[in-house]
């Protein structure tokens, strides 16, 4: 069955009529910034600290829009008797966005994660030569890079985080060992000092002290007179009675031979 003449035109006009009846929505740019998807390819940000000047990004770029300059420096040996090493130092890193086709190959081939996609898109220029941005501008765009999405619960931890955690644990263990050794050395030093000071602190044998008697002006004890025989009351009035033999002044009894004499 052949189509009715003008049916296609009627369908087109129906779409136009439906659109005309809807309310128009206009994004007030630049007052209101658009909400971009997380993986928007705006510009390329450079994390300069990770760049080793391996030149992989410049060699793999299909447009040859990446320009890199560098020089070599000699690094002294880290340990005595070691060998000096040479390393590449980045002098220039520029991207010509008038040639870039935003394929992302340079970001994928970078082995040290020095290049990232940034959602920044406001970099239009009036002169085409000004679309070649140097490393300072690329570094500014690096801080607009969104955080990567969270890993799945069963995914393995990234090797960079694992290596960083192992290094941190090793440093922490070394610091704990040094603190333990310092504490043991301090305790041993205190014990040695206590052993050296022990014999001098013990008291020696004490000399016998004299009993305190009446002292004179010089502080020395004065001799005391011996007590004579004590006389009880009433004994002096009884003649012929010998003093008490039990007293301290009583004389010893005489023997028979001494009496005869």
- Regarding quaternary structure, what we see is single chain
User: Pairing-aware structural class of the strands and helices?
Assistant: alpha+beta
What is the share of helical residues?
25-40%
Radius of gyration: 56 Å
Q: What does the largest sheet look like? A: 3 strands, antiparallel
User: What strand line-up does the widest sheet have?
Assistant: 2-3-5
Mean pLDDT: 80
Sequence stretches where pLDDT stays below 50 over 5 or more residues: 234-240, 245-250
Quantity of strands, as a count: 5
Give the helices and strands as they follow along the chain.
HEHEEHEEHHH
Shape: elongated
Termini separation: 192 Å
Please, how many helices? 6
Quote the beta fraction. Answer: 5-15%
Structure, described:
With 261 residues, this protein is α+β, with helices and mostly antiparallel strands. Helix content is 31%, strand content 12%. It has 6 helices and 5 strands, in the order αβαββαββααα. The longest helix has 43 residues, at 159-201. The protein is elongated and about 125 Å long.
Layout of helices and strands:
Blueprint: H1 7-21, E1 43-46, H2 56-60, E2 66-75, E3 85-96, H3 105-109, E4 115-118, E5 132-133, H4 135-142, H5 159-201, H6 256-260
Antiparallel strand pairs: 1-4, 2-3, 3-5
Question: Can I get a quick summary?
Answer:
This protein has 261 residues and is α+β, with helices and mostly antiparallel strands. Helices cover 31% and strands 12% of the residues. A 3-stranded antiparallel beta sheet has the order 2-3-5.
